[in-house]
Amino acid sequence: MGVRRTSEADYDLSNPIESFADVVRRVVFHPVRFFAGLPRRGSLLNPLVFALICTEIGAILGGLLSLARVGGAFVTGYGFQVSENEGLGEFIGSVILAPIGGLIGVFVVAGIAHLLVRLVVGATNAGFGATFRVAAYTSVTSLVSWIPFIGGLLGLYGIYLAVVGIREMHGTTTGKALLVVVLPVIVIVVLALLGLLLAGAMSFSRTT
User: Fold this and answer.
1) CA angle 184-25-7, nearest 5°?
2) What is the phi-psi region of residue 74: left when phi exceeds 0, alpha when psi lies from -120 to 50, beta otherwise?
3) Which DSSP symbol is given to 107?
4) Which residues pair with 74 in a beta bridge?
5) What gap in Å lies between CA 122 and CA 100, rounded to an integer?
6) What is the pTM assigned to this prediction?
7) Residue 127: left if φ>0, alpha if ψ -120 to 50, beta else—which one?
């Protein structure tokens, strides 16, 4: 009898704690094969647990860095902020609140992303479960987001992971997957520019 090789689908269905390190390695170094091998539907529990572990580890490491009085304010997970030079109480609070922020964040990100998937990819998309898995497993970048400056640069790799995930999970093109991922950023930038122009116009009208 031959030895059965572990597939990416097994990680989505097995114990996410025991397989955590191996899943991190596969997501980071073999994202195309990893996402292509994931089930499109089924329970969301294990991908969610993986995302929460990443967020919690990022919050703990970031909090320890802040307690050591190194670096400034930074963000872990889905927008969960750890303040500069936080005290022990704030550190404990951030560790407790990180999973809550991660839980809300991954569903919000997946929800917005899937609306764009339906808009860009169309009716041929693989469903919300596929998009949720992309949002959950790309949270692997939370593991390094606490590192000042370097974490931000490495976090850009998350964009690549998200594009690969959307493309492979929904069977679409790289161009459409890229549009799904960057469109929210474009909208935010445009709205910010419009806000600045509006504020400038109002300030100018008051001085004339």
Assistant:
1) 95
2) beta
3) H
4) 82
5) 32
6) 0.78
7) left
pLDDT(168) > 60: yes
- Greater confidence (127 vs 98) lies with 127
Return the SS3 of 197. Answer: helix
Q: Is 162 in contact with 138 (CB distance < 8 Å)?
A: yes
By the 10 Å C-beta count (0-12 exposed, 13-18 middle, 19+ buried), 169 is classed as buried
Residues 6+ apart with CB under 8 A from 155: 141, 144, 145
Backbone angles phi, psi at 202, to 5 degrees: -65, -40
Where does the pLDDT of residue 86 fall: very low under 50, low under 70, confident under 90, or very high at 90 and above? low
> For 83, what's the count of Cα atoms within 13 Å in the CB-facing half-sphere?
9
Mean pLDDT of 87-114: 83
Q: Report the C-alpha gap between 132 and 108 in whole angstroms.
A: 10
Transcribe 3-49 into DSSP letters: PPPPPHHHHHHS-TTTTHHHHHHHHHH-HHHHHHTS-SSS--HHHHH
Give 58-67 pLDDT, tens digit per residue.
Answer: 888 877 776 6
* Rg, C-alpha atoms of the chain: 19
